[in-house]
Amino acid sequence: MDLIDFSKTRLLTPGPVPLFAKVAQTLSLPMEHHRTPGFEELLTNVWADLAWVFQSPSAPLILTATGTGAMEASVANLLSPGERVLCVDSGKFGDRWATIAEGLGARVHRFSVPWGSSLDLDEFERLVKENNFDFVMSQVCETSTATIHPIKAMAALIHQHSSALFLVDAITGLVNVELPMTDWGLDVVLAGSQKVFGLPTGLAFVALSERAWTKQKTATTPKFYFDFLKERQANMRGETAFSASVTLIRALAEALKLFRTWGLSRVRKRSERLALGTRELACDLGLDVFSQSPSPSVTALTLPTLIDGKKFRLTLEEKFNIVVMGGQDQLMGRILRIGHMGAVTNEDMLTLSRGLFECLNLFGVQISETNWQKAQTKLATTLGEELA
Ligand SMILES: *Cc1c(COP(=O)(O)O)cnc(C)c1O
User: Fold this and answer.
1) What does the pLDDT look like over 254-306, one tens digit per residue?
2) Would you state the pLDDT for residue 1?
3) How far is CA 331 from CA 84, 138, 290, 295, 309, in A?
4) What pLDDT score does 2 carry?
């Protein structure tokens, strides 16, 4: 069984993700100060590369926070209490948008979408037409259900019927889903380091449209550390407002260099192949894909109802050293979520396939060795070449 090795731990979660070797190497470099010409030059290059990744009208801000910090900061910098917000609530992270906005005093309408479904555009249009929302908030990819939403069509409907700003959580959507910010009229696009950027956890990025910068001027929600204007002014001087996370930004510079070398379409195609391979494998092993609108960044597989999903996931981890995520809230114990971001290798995937096969047999789902062999051959073909 070539390329199957259970001795090594395989991180196949939808964030954090395995690091590329060149990124990992930067993490042990000697510390340097963030207010030095050398670091400021690195920052300037990083901002330019980030603007290229985001296809944003100006350089995205770099926040020392996880993705949720960028979500809260975006709301705090743009919203005034009492304003009206439409939140697409199709899972754990959509619920988070709504909870943040409510906490900061917005009047929130939750557009509840069944978990695993993409939103209904007719209903969405009716909502934005009939209400005078100040903001619409959505995920590109709702990571908890591995589902993507039609952001381009949503943006067009919002701008056709309202003057609402569109805030887009692209934490697992950026790069893997095409998202031209200016062309589509997205007002805020945010991402985090430990997902599509393939970095350790701890940085978040926020890109704003000119409309969003204008709105920011009149927003009355209090803030101090995450003050976008203060950060932008510091950036214009070539620095960050507070101490920069030198280590993570150096790693980011390396990840962006890799993206430049490969091209974003190759990074996207790699994720698409990992996702497709996972969906085909699921089918071959008799498992269902949970989402009706599956994501290229993460795949959710539905386990047979007879199987205790929590035990299954733990067995995969303890017996086979394969770490995937389970479901959250209503999906707890029912699904497995497998990530396709970062330095996932073919060996990781082929080992996952064997691990799933052995685990399913352990849990009483009989799959023959011959059928698995066929599935494995197909998987290897679908995966194609790794990014290197
Ligand atoms: C991971 C994730 C978040 C939250 O990010 P943290 O880094 O855990 O704060 C928000 N939205 C989506 C879609 C995510 O996948």
Assistant:
1) 999 999 999 999 999 999 999 999 999 999 999 999 999 999 999 999 999 99
2) 53
3) 30, 20, 10, 17, 10
4) 66
- Backbone φ, ψ for residue 150 (5° rounding): -80, 80
Q: Is 95 in the pocket of ligand 1 (CB under 6 A)?
A: no
219 in Cβ contact with 78 (< 8 Å): yes
- Residue 3 — pLDDT band, cuts 50, 70, 90? confident
Contact 90 CB / ligand 1 (< 6 Å):
no
DSSP secondary structure, 53-98, as one string: HHT-SSPPEEESS-HHHHHHHHHHHH--TT-EEEEEESSHHHHHHH
Other beta carbons within 10 Å of 180: 12
Could you count the other beta carbons within 10 Å of the beta carbon of residue 34?
A: 17
| Residue identifier of the C-alpha nearest atom 6 of ligand 1 | 67
The CB of 171 under 6 Å from ligand 1? The reply is yes
Share of the chain above pLDDT 70, in %: 99
CB 341 within 8 A of CB 195: yes
Give yes or no for a contact between 89 and 144, defined as CB atoms under 8 angstroms apart.
no
Is the CB–ligand 1 distance for residue 192 below 6 Å? yes
With a cut of 90, say whether residue 359 has pLDDT above it.
yes
Buried/exposed code over 298-314 (b: 16+ C-beta within 10 A; e: otherwise):
bbbbbbeeebebeebbe
Cβ-Cβ contacts under 8 Å for 379 (sequence gap 6 or more):
277, 280, 281, 349, 350, 353
CA geometry: angle 188, 146, 338, nearest 5 deg: 120
Which ranges of 222-335 does DSSP label H, i.e. alpha helix? 228-236, 246-262, 264-284, 309-320
Q: Cα dist. 46→50, 71, 187, 379 in Å?
A: 6, 21, 21, 36
Give 199-245 pLDDT, tens digit per residue.
999 999 999 999 999 999 999 999 999 999 999 999 999 999 999 99
Q: How far apart are CA 69 and CA 81, in angstroms?
A: 19
